[in-house]
Write a structure and sequence with these properties.
The chain is mostly helical and about 300 residues long. Helix content is about 70%, strand content about 0%. It has one domain: Ferritin, core subunit, four-helix bundle (Ferritin). It binds 3-hydroxybutanoyl-coenzyme A.
Amino acid sequence: AYEAKLAAFEARIAAGERIEPGDWMPEAYRKQLIRMISQHAHSEVVGMLPEGEWIGRAPSLRRKLILIAKVQDEAGHGQYLYHAAETLGATREEMTEALLTGRAKYSSVFNYPTLTWADVGMIGWLVDGAAIKNQTMLARCSYGPYSRAMVRICTEETFHHKQGKEMVIRYAQGTPKQRQMAQDALDRWWWPSLMMLGPHDSDSPNTPQLVKWGIKTKTNDEVRQEFIAEHAPELQEAGLVIPDPELRQNPDGTWHHGPIDWDEFWRVVRGDGICNKARLEAKNRAHDEGRWVREALQAYSERGRAQAA
Ligand code: 3HC
């Protein structure tokens, strides 16, 4: 009966086994994974927009090449993740529709503007840094296709992280103008990067079920602590000031930080952030402008089928 199947499923999770697409799984497990993976995929493709705006304005050919490679990587991560969600029965059409109509969530952090070139470096260091902590955790996820996608994505994110850190450190140790740009970028990206890792565990309705079934192997606050523990000392070493006067390390090694503005977080998640509207308009425009490609592919595959018949 159902109870026996659920018990067998939970025993597999407890034994550290990977659940694969054809395996039996509770409907709630499937739904949780479609929710998380599709939102993760949306985050990757929307995440291309803020930094993509700087490809035409990169200060050197080298920086332009690095940025093009990074944005292309993110498009690929989106494809992996949409495919991983499809293994659970979600369709590309449904997921695309949910994103374009504003119904689907994607990472709040991408609703902030990239005002100067230093933002591109800070996104690489902080946003990709937070993503690496989150995705390294998800690489141990109990669902096979998701955990395997994470292994590949994490290696590419490491390059994103290194290039951002290298750029920001150069600016922080550069001219006064460059240092001011790096500090201004830190002032605007520090808190959104903390929020990106999700609400506090006490306000995280999905975490208990996700941890129980091995989808999340660490909680939001645990991943946030890992992010702060790595990035706070390195940002300070680079001579930058973290915009949180309360930030300090506790005697037990954990980090104390000031209160996070969750009102801002929920406002942005609900669609009322600085760039939410612009991001959805850009995605809808790209979808419309790409219609001829989808139609051509459809016609080509139908002709191929007709000839094969
Ligand atoms: N932005 C938007 N919505 C968020 C959010 C964020 N930063 N953090 C949480 N939420 C939403 C959740 O989706 C949930 O809403 P829902 O139930 O309608 O989906 C609600 O807030 C409550 O939060 P929970 O903590 O209960 O949600 P989760 O347990 O799912 O934890 C999460 C949130 C840690 C983001 C988790 O969903 C997760 O690990 N997702 C997959 C990884 C991911 O999306 N990483 C960040 C973006 S990828 C990226 O940065 C690209 C890289 O190239 C830079």
